[in-house]
Automatic annotation (TrEMBL):
The lineage of its organism: Bacteria, Pseudomonadati, Pseudomonadota, Betaproteobacteria, Burkholderiales. Pfam families: ABC_tran. Keywords: Amino-acid transport, ATP-binding, Cell membrane, Membrane, Nucleotide-binding, Translocase, Transport. PROSITE patterns: ABC_TRANSPORTER_1 (PS00211), ABC_TRANSPORTER_2 (PS50893). This is Methionine ABC transporter ATP-binding protein. Coiled coil: none annotated.
Amino acid sequence: MSSVFRLENVSKTFSRSGDTVHALRSISLDIPAGSFFGIVGTSGAGKSTLLRLLNLLEKPSSGTIHFHDQPLHELKGAAVRQYLSKVPTIFQHFNLFHAKTVLENIAFPLEVRGIGKTARLKKAAELIELVGLQGKENAYPSQLSGGQKQRVGIARALVADAEVLLCDEATSALDSETTTIILDLLLKLKQQLNLTIILITHSWSVVRYAADSVTLIQDGNIIEAGSVRTLLHDADSYLGRQLLPAPDLGRNPDDGWVRYDLILSDVREQSTFFSEVARSLGITAAMVSGGVERLGGVDAARFKVDFDLRGKAASAQAALSAALREKSIVLGKVA
Ligand SMILES: Nc1ncnc2c1ncn2[C@@H]1O[C@H](COP(=O)(O)OP(=O)(O)OP(=O)(O)O)[C@@H](O)[C@H]1O
């Protein structure tokens, strides 16, 4: 897959009261075209700084950022405006014009580009439909709910031929139900308009729900990055475990039983795999907890399963581990 952005050794420092703050420390990153790219990290990790480099609100202190083959620092004048139409941003607090109607807000980027009134209102009306705001054309932002305001923000961002949508904590001001609705809308628009979406958030649940690629940023460093599928199937991946957390363990295993923490490589196996492994070895299996989750479009299953090894030779456990490894990723023998 080609990259829409490529960052090479990008650093960003700020000076604050005579001190140097290292917001980003020589990070390198490829953002695949067509991905829903989640950048997650705690407060102060450097997420906003990274996004602000992509929407040209800041410049790197060192390193280069390419948009396709174009180094961002070479963009000048009209090329900057063209780039920002292709790479718009939506914001946590929506940043709408309060004195303009919904339709006028959405049409605004076209007005800036000198597009005639009839054409821009026609295009804005198309976007109204795409984001499901029919009937709200003449409302003012103060008359809208948070979710409706973000729909206006999304429509305004996409009105001028966007290719990449940057989302700056775009659901952080919304309740969880509205967050899901907005993420569903973003996922739908991504498909329909062939977008790349780059979303920064402190919320693991947002990343789990929508992202197909995830980057963890901490103290200005990239700790780990990859596609959800790759991360889940890497037994050593910290991000993989964060994306698919261990289910509640319940009670400890009984004496002589051994508990395994497993990710299934193929979730279609989930109903039969553990019992078949147990039967083939002449032992009993008991599911402790777990289930199938959908993560960024990938079905993933993590289970804790107890196996009864009472009275079995030591070699039985090695045989069990080997059988489990054939179709699952063994994260650990818990007890
Ligand atoms: N303009 C600035 N001047 C000085 N320091 C800054 C500036 N912008 C960011 N920083 C500092 O850079 C570091 C990274 O900040 P950044 O806003 O990128 O983090 P973040 O992950 O987006 O956090 P949050 O989720 O709280 O917004 C922080 O220590 C922050 O205080």
